[in-house]
Amino acid sequence: MGFSLSGGMPLFTLSRLVHFYPSGFVLPFHAADLAHWSVSSLAAWWMAGPGELTPDFLILGVMWYIVFLFSTTCHEGAHSLIAKLGGDSTAFHGGQVTLNPLPHIKREPFGLVVVPILSYFVAHWMIGWASAPYDPAWQQRYPRRAAWMALGGPAANFTLVLLSAVAIRAGIFFHVFAMPDSVSFTQVVQPVGPGLAGFAATFLSIVFVLNLLLGTFNLLPVPPLDGNTGITIFMNGESALRFLNWSRSQGFGMIGLLLAWYVYDKMFPYIFRFALAGLYPGSHWG
């Protein structure tokens, strides 16, 4: 990806259906998927023909993309806003201190439009990325401010998790929603009756789980994820700069991303259980 001023704050997201039953948990994505899906899934979809393009599949795809785009915009907008408050106006002048997705799409059209939509059709999940520009010289002068900038993106995602949880609990209180017998990316809560409640339950479920995934995954302390810079909040300025210079000089790149996915594959079941326990106190999953 191209970062203006040789720097950027990238966001990576991979989302696919996850099922959580009382009998156990299955997380059906692995680091190898990143390299594998584009060929095998495209071939399988092409051979299967248009039979899978049902109205429900298309409607669900629209819902996924709306949540994906809004969540990513919030993430990058938060990076940009905190950078501006910390004295770096690079992203502000690029028009990215906004919840309008268009400036973010203009910066990363491939990662925010082409790849998410293509991956949904060929693999039934979404992968994408975005970035917010920053001034590396500003980071060298103010490494702690840069750490707060890095943490701002995941903080925006966790805010959306909390807001969706409040909406879910409110729906349960007013007998619009109910706790489901099994949980997936699209069913963290279920409607009591038919109609708009079903749409709202699916939408809030996707917001809850996708932002939980985005926030926690991007906190992993490996480049190019936010956690690699965010972890320097616990270091003094000199140590932070040494750590950042070292981690970026090792050429982790895709290796770091694949390693993050391998580790996250093991972590997410526990993260999901913890989040569900907070959403439904006293319940036990998996």
Entry keywords:
single chain, 286 residues, mainly alpha, 3-stranded antiparallel sheet, two-stranded antiparallel ribbon, globular, disordered N terminus
What can be said about this structure in brief?
62% of the residues lie in helices and 9% in strands. It is built from eleven helices and seven strands. Helix 2 runs antiparallel to helix 5 (109-123), helix 4 crosses helix 5 (109-123) and helix 8 crosses helix 11.
> What is the first-to-last residue Cα distance?
39 Å
Give the low-confidence spans: 1-51
Largest sheet: 3 strands, antiparallel
Task: Report the total helices.
Answer: 11
Number of domains: 1
Largest sheet, spatial ordering of strands: 3-2-6
Estimated radius of gyration: 19 Å
Q: What's the quaternary structure here?
A: single chain
What class do helices, strands and sheet pairing give? mainly alpha
Mean pLDDT across all residues, rounded? 81
Shape, principal axes of CA atoms: globular
What percent of the residues sit in helical stretches (DSSP H or I)?
55-70%
Reading the helices and strands in chain order gives EEEHHHHHEHHEEEHHHH
Task: Kindly state the number of beta strands.
Answer: 7
**Amount of beta strand:** 5-15%
What does this structure look like?
The chain is mainly alpha-helical and 286 residues long. The protein has eleven helices and seven strands. Helix 1 crosses helix 5 (109-123), helix 2 (55-85) crosses helix 7 (143-173) and helix 7 (143-173) runs antiparallel to helix 8 (196-217). It starts with 8 loop residues before the first strand and ends in a 7-residue tail after the last helix.
